[in-house]
Structure formats: structure tokens, C-alpha cells
Amino acid sequence: MDIDRVMDEIQADSLGLNLEVYRANKALRLKILEKSDQYIETPFSEWPVIYFNWDLSKQGQRFSLDGEKEAGFKIRYPEGFLLGTVALTSFDEKLCYFSRRNEGELWSVGSKNDLAYLIVYLSEKRPISPPLVKPHMMGEVML
Predict the structure, then answer these.
(1) 3-15 and 19-36 helices cross at what angle (nearest 10)?
(2) Is the C or the N end of the chain the one with fewer CB within 10 Å?
């Protein structure tokens, strides 16, 4: 048995996926990663059009937490999250400073690779979970 197959089977099992689904997801991630390199350090004006295709499904909510596995999410949040909407201007007024990025900070704060990946992912109209918003001190909210 080749080592790549064994590693894929281990990863698939740890994520609770069958091997075919895991490999399809892996191929998609690699394709997006390959395309994303061209956007690192580029200004917003040079990005492709971004679409927010909100995934409001209960199953997709686990993606609102970085690194959370589905099994752990189901244990910690058996009812899922409460979903709601708010006007962007109202939200922006309450957003705390460390959840904000201005155009000059886009590439200097956080992971450049993750941001570039997200640019490509969203430009392809792929589904994304809405951000998890939590209360913060002094009436502010944080992502």
C-alpha cells in the first residue's frame, strides 16, 4: 500500500469522511491554493469580484470555528448557533478594533496565504459560513 493512500485514509478517518470525499476536498484545496498565490500582496482593486454565498445550514456552522472538527462541534454546540442578520453600518459601529482591518493592514496582519485562499474561494462563489460574532467589552462585538 502506498504511503499517500495510507495518509489520505488516516486524514479522511480523522475528519469523519470517506476516502473519495476527502480526496475531492483535497484536490479542490490544492487547486485553490495554486490560484491564490497570484493575489498575495495585491491591492483590493486587483482582486476578482468577491461573492458571499452564505451557507446557513446547521451542518455548515461548524466551519465558523477555526480548526473545529464536526464531532467536537456537535458536543459543544448540540443546538448549533443562532443565526441572524444586521445592517452592515450598525454592525460596523460596534465592531471592536482587533476585528477590523483597513486596506493597509490586509497583508500585514494575519496569514497572507489564508487571505489569498479566501479571495479565490469567494470569487468562485463557493459556500462560506457567516462569521461567528461574540459580545465583547463596552458594548462591542468581535469576530
Answers:
(1) 100
(2) N
Q: Which residue has the cell 479566501?
A: 118
Rounded distance between C-alpha atoms, residue 114 and residue 31, angstroms? 14
Q: Strand 134-135 to strand 141-142: parallel, antiparallel, or no bridges (unpaired)?
A: antiparallel
| Per-residue pLDDT tens digits for 8-36 | 888 888 888 889 988 999 999 999 999 99
C-alpha angle with apex 139: 65 to 101, nearest 5 degrees? 55
**CA distances, 43 to each of 40, 81, 100, 102, 115 (Å):** 9, 34, 17, 11, 12
Q: Model pTM greater than 0.85?
A: no
Phi and psi at residue 102, to the nearest 5°? -95, 170
- What DSSP designation does 134 have? E
